[in-house]
Amino acid sequence: MILGRYQTYLEQKNSEISWLGNIPTDWKLKRFKNLFRIQKRIAGEVGHDILSITQRGVKIKDISSGDGQLSMDYSKYQLVHCGEYAMNHMDLLTGYVDISRYNGVTSPDYRVFTLKDKGSHDRYYLYLLQLCYISKIFYPLGQGAAQLGRWRLPAEAFNNFVAPSPSKEEQTQIANFLDHETAKIDTLIEKQQELIELLKEKRQAVISHAVTKGLNPDAPMKPSGVEWLGDVPAHWEVTRLKHECSDIVDCLHSTPEYSSFGVFPAIRTADITPGKLDIENARRVDENVYKNRNIRLTPQADDIIYSREGERFGIAALVPKEAMVCLGQRVMLFRATKTPKYLMWSLNSDPTYRQAQQDVIGSTSPHVNVDTIKNFYLAWPPENEREIISFHIDRSIESFDKIESIASTKIDLLQERRAALISAAVTGKIDVRNWQPPEPTQEEPA
Length: 446
What we know:
Elements: H1 2-5, E1 12-14, E2 22-24, E3 28-31, H2 32-35, E4 36-39, E5 51-54, E6 57-60, E7 78-80, E8 85-87, E9 97-99, E10 104-106, E11 111-115, H3 122-134, E12 143-145, E13 150-152, H4 155-159, E14 162-165, H5 168-213, E15 221-223, E16 231-233, E17 237-240, E18 245-250, E19 264-267, E20 272-273, E21 276-277, E22 283-285, H6 287-293, E23 304-307, E24 316-318, E25 326-327, E26 331-336, H7 340-347, H8 350-357, E27 360-361, E28 367-368, H9 370-374, E29 377-380, H10 383-426
């Protein structure tokens, strides 16, 4: 589809590089060591902006928040000047590369370099470098332990990497073309991401309203006596979490021994989204670890697993039928005496989250005390109404999930198209030498 919309070069030659294939006849090949100059300038002082290399580019890190990994001595970081490339070559799976728009410092383990070849264009090679991450072109050249997220690109492999090199004028044209076309795609991706965020807000609003106000807008209300709950229907009660559970169990305060051969999912906070456990992608443990982790209580269908620590604290989901799971890290298990689904949705509501926030301890890894969690206040309707409310939330969430799934699929397709367009342009599979940006009134829909 990409090739069909654009012209192709009439004369091509074999590059004899497997990932590159044929290239235009007048294109050259150059090694990175002839294109770039690696810099290594240790700051020797503090006071510089701390730069992070993310998959959305180089960002200034907010070290005052205490979030993420912090250094004990930023004077040992290396300088990055505006306009220089900054590359996380230590992790070829989740790392990235970008041209910095800021002066600052970044980790001494990262790679900072400049374009020394005067016949080259910086943005053309930025697109090429980013493609090498997106399409995992660098990956076969890596060394280290990929399973631990440390699959790095050594300096020798970087320096000897062979890249296409059209004329500077053609590089500039390709970069301008990609700037224009990827901007259109990025706008569409951003709109789908905004839709997903809106759906999350609506999902949360539906949950919170249903478990505190009910489904009857005309129902008489009364003060709950609890700041976070506000007014509740007059025929409802206010209870505490511990009164609606037969068992409340905290996880073992140790890291499970994960196994690539294990079959039992160990649920962590990362595996919990409101109302759903991501069992498929959970880490596994063997039978001995499974039994040890469940020494206090073995999770069964309709038990509630709740995240009580980390950035994702305050989220709950039910254990599905026939799932043999154990508690991993930073989670708790609740066994409801009745209507576990309603209890689970109550735990996911904003009022319950606000109660948890009152007792959050720690900044780098926030967590809530078990005693605080046991005493959460909950709005509690009669049992038949709890069932009806749970069904209503399920149906609403299902409709939101369908729309979100469609939006996520669109994002995946747009990202694939973006990568394919970049690949086709920087490797000479399409000819954009005659491309001109359309007039604003002539802009084609992306």
